[in-house]
Amino acid sequence: MRAKIITTIGPNCWDRYAKRFVESFAQRWPQHIELEVWHHHLGKDVPSHPRATFRCLDDTESFKKITSMLGAQAKDGPSLNYSFKAVAMAMAVEPDVDWIGFLDADTETMQNVDDTLLGVLFDPGADLTYLWRKSVRESEGSWFAFNLTTREGASLLSDYWGLYDSGEAFHYKKAHDNAVLDRLVTIHRAHNLRVRNLAEGALGLDAFHQSPLGAYLVHYKGPNKDTIANPGLALPPRYENLCSVVRHSVGVLGKANLVEVGTWNGSRAVQMAEAAFESGATEVSYMGFDTFDDGNDRAHEGHTKPHASMWVVERRLQNYATVMARLGKKFSFMLFRGNTLSTLPAAHEFVKDATFAYIDGGHSHETTKSDYECLKHVPYIVFDDIIVEEEPGAPEGPRQVFKEITNSHKQLWNAGDGYGGLKQTIALGIISNPPHKPYEIRQPLQVKPVDSVEKTEQFKYIAENTKAIGKWIEGYQAHTGRALLVSAGPTLPSFLEEIRKKQAEGATIFCVKHAYPILKNAGITPDFTVVLDPRPVDGISTHGVLRTELFTKLGAGDRFLVATMTHPSVRETLEAGGADIYGWHALTQGVQNAGLPELKTGLVIGGGTCAATRLPVIAFVMGFRRYDFYGYDFYYPTGTKQADVKQQLLEVGVGPDHRRFLTTGELVAAMQDLGTWVKWMVENRLTVNFHGDGAGAIIWQTTAPGYQAPGEYPF
Questions:
Q1: What is the helix (H) or strand (E) element at residue 516, kind and residue range?
Q2: Interior/surface letters 182-210, b for 16+ CB within 10 angstroms, e for the rest
Q3: FRET pair for 192, CA 20 to 30 Å: which of 86, 415, 478, 699?
Q4: 218 by DSSP, 3-state: which?
Q5: Using 50, 70 and 90 to split pLDDT, how confident is the model at 302?
Q6: pLDDT value for 297
Q7: Rounded distance, CA 101 to CA 105, Å?
Q8: What are phi and psi of 270, to 5 degrees?
Q9: Spacing of C-alpha 576 from chain mean position
């Protein structure tokens, strides 16, 4: 069998991570597996290595064609990058090549690749091997391979490349490489395509490490490509709650000796260890119990997941330990295979100093009871899969055993996760044993925004404004400009001089309407003021301000980006003052479902429930990738009176330290939106700075800890 592994690199990649990739490949992969590194935009600075063949994407006719065909942007981001994999793999085809696989260059091979892994990656019974993520219904693009010895595999690669080469892929809503491949897989499966998913049963976004690849390689993330993928992304919420208890235990006890009953594929081991390290632990000890390959009575124990290989899990955790050691942290582990009715009692000496135990093994009463009896001395214990009420098909062991426990501080934490089609959702059972400080459940506050006017009224405003507005914002090429995104929080006044200076240096100010008078009173005219408000201009805003007073400093030529669902009286006021108005449509579920003909004019832009959380998306559409946030505080100063605010005031805790803020339901909804859009900004690798100490800055720090934006292009 002749097989090629393809990867792609661009500027500033070789020294950061690609050299490590090639060197580990040379050391760990069999010599008969070929490696081709396809590079782009490197000029004369092309690296070399005796184990790899380096080929230039820029020189291929296909790449030249796609480059000339495109602007720098498709519907959901930079588009040229999306074609790299398809072009490289298609151009690497030779008559006698049996398999072509793509492997991300930000991986490192940690164990010698053997026939076991090769037999999985290049399964002769499959036309395609890849990593499917059930939780997001999308594959992970870090690995996929085409079997060129079959008509189905070869035609799939041909079509994959063809969609980019023809330009058709760039008309799709999602043009990125794995989304286009998934679309084709769905079609080709109807014509006998045989697919092998290497991550069967995987949970969350990180399919790579839950596949056999995780036993041999590490897939790095982060701007410096030195941290592992977060195993908690897109998982059921209770796993983050689990980690919250882990953090509490480390904070109280100052150490992390973790025990897990039901290790499965090792994902929770890594996730809990990461939580412990984040809480200040420099050493984490982990002991995992599972039947692994031996299996158990699935019906009796209430299991549905596929069994994991102990060999694979052991090597995955060893790889994790190696990565942590490079970061100056120690992760040690022991795995115990077999039924915990016998293995856990026999491991008494190993678990006697445990500080935290997670019980998620067999769900029969007999097994759960035995597991708890062996671990009841542990200061903090969490049971998974507790159903509050008896229900046919529900796991009875955790519920019954948790109910029987006395003389301990007990709490149930229901995160709303489903379980195998049951009517009820499942809860975590948290045990805090005296004399240790009990864990305190802090239930997150969820706000469901409600439209301030009826949808039929909104549709009327959209129709009237669309007819009246003559100019519209468009999607523009990505550029190097800096966007100052300005909301009207209490910290804004302290940054006015900084904003003034940055605007003078060339930065562009996008602000919300409540920030507009603050900036104008300081002698600063924002470049764009975004308005998204379907209520009349002569009314009182939710912040207790008469809306007409927001525009008393309106200057002729001041630019406003007005959403079409804005009340026409607002637009008319701006027009009367000589404002320069550009239109856009705010995407909402109601607008999308209505199929309004007005949406054919101008751009439809997503975002959150208010103008402040639409600003990042508007700036992105207009080509900005560098953001500074000011006034994103989402709170009122201490001492604010209820009479001065239209909405009900309430106090909420934000961040791991639960810093208290006086706020409203509307601002809490904005906080929720921001948490979502922070992840979007990280995924799009934007340069982001939050200024001030309000809730927005805390949400950024806690949602994207350690994030570093990519460096500037050095050539």
A1: helix 516-521
A2: bbbbeebeeeebbbbbbbeebbbbbbbbb
A3: 86
A4: strand
A5: low
A6: 60
A7: 12
A8: -70, -40
A9: 44
- Distance between CA 476 and CA 628 in Å, rounded? 20
The residue among 415, 450, 482 whose CA lies nearest residue 630 is: 482
The HSE-up count of residue 640 (CA atoms within 13 Å, CB side) is 20
Instruction: Using alpha carbons, list the distances in angstroms from residue 560 to 144, 467, 542, 700.
Output: 47, 17, 21, 27
Closest CA to 235 of 399, 415, 393: 415
Place of tokens 């069967």: 200
Distance between CA 224 and CA 62 in Å, rounded?
A: 31
The pLDDT value recorded for residue 310 is 95
Helix, strand, coil % over all residues of the chain, rounded to 5: 35, 20, 40
**Which tokens sit at 38?**
């396809």
Could you report the per-residue pLDDT of 372-411, keeping only the tens digit for each? Answer: 999 999 999 999 999 877 788 778 899 999 999 998 999 9
The DSSP bridge partners found for residue 358 are 260, 382
Higher per-residue confidence, 350 vs 278: 350
pLDDT at 671 over 70: yes
Reported as half-sphere exposure (CB side, CA atoms, 13 A), residue 229 has a value of: 22
Q: CA-to-CA distance for 238 and 86, rounded, in angstroms?
A: 38
Half-sphere exposure for 85 (CA within 13 Å, toward CB): 24
Number of H helices, E strands in the chain: 22, 27
Q: Does 73 score more than 50 pLDDT?
A: no
For the stretch 232-288, pLDDT in tens is 777 888 898 899 999 999 999 999 999 999 999 999 999 999 999 989 999 999 999
Q: What is the CA radius of gyration of the chain?
A: 28
Tokens of 648: 């009900």
- Return d(Cα 243, Cα 279) in angstroms, integer: 10
Tens-place pLDDT, residues 213-239? 999 999 998 767 878 877 877 788 889
Round the average pLDDT of the chain to a whole number and report it.
89
Q: H-type helices in 327-383, by residue range? A: 340-346, 348-351, 365-375
The Cα 292–Cα 312 span in angstroms is 10
Q: How far apart are the first and last CA of the chain?
A: 41
Is residue 540 pLDDT above 80, yes or no? no
pLDDT score of 451 more than 60: no
Q: 485-503: buried (b, 16+ CB within 10 Å) or exposed (e) per residue?
A: bbbbbebbeebbeebeebb
Residue entry with tokens 């904005």: 670
Q: What is the pTM of this model?
A: 0.68
DSSP string, 144-166: EEEETTSHHHHHHHHHHHHHHHT
- Three-state DSSP at 484 gives strand
Question: Residue length, the chain?
Answer: 715
Q: Specify the pLDDT at position 250.
A: 96
Burial class (CB in 10 A: 0-12, 13-18, 19+), 467: exposed
**375 CB-near residues (< 8 Å, 6+ apart):** 259, 261, 344, 351, 354, 357, 359, 381
Q: Tokens 């020189």 identify what position?
A: 59
> CB–CB of 4/36 below 8 Å?
yes
- The predicted-structure confidence for 546-561, as pLDDT tens digits, reads as follows 888 999 999 999 999 9
- Does residue 11 have a cis peptide bond before it, meaning omega lies within 30 degrees of 0? no
User: Edge to edge, what strands does the sheet with 356-359 contain?
Assistant: 330-337, 283-290, 256-261, 356-359, 380-386, 426-432, 409-417
Name the nearest CA neighbour of 103 among 186, 48, 24: 24
DSSP letter at 540?
B
Q: If you average pLDDT over residues 38-43, what whole number do you get?
A: 92
- Nearest alpha-carbon partner for 358 in 244, 192, 251, 210: 244
Residue 569 is encoded by which pair of tokens?
């009286």
In order of their start, the domains of the chain are 3-221 (3.90.550.10), 236-432 (3.40.50.150), 455-703 (3.90.1480)
- Mean of the pLDDT values across residues 95-100? 97
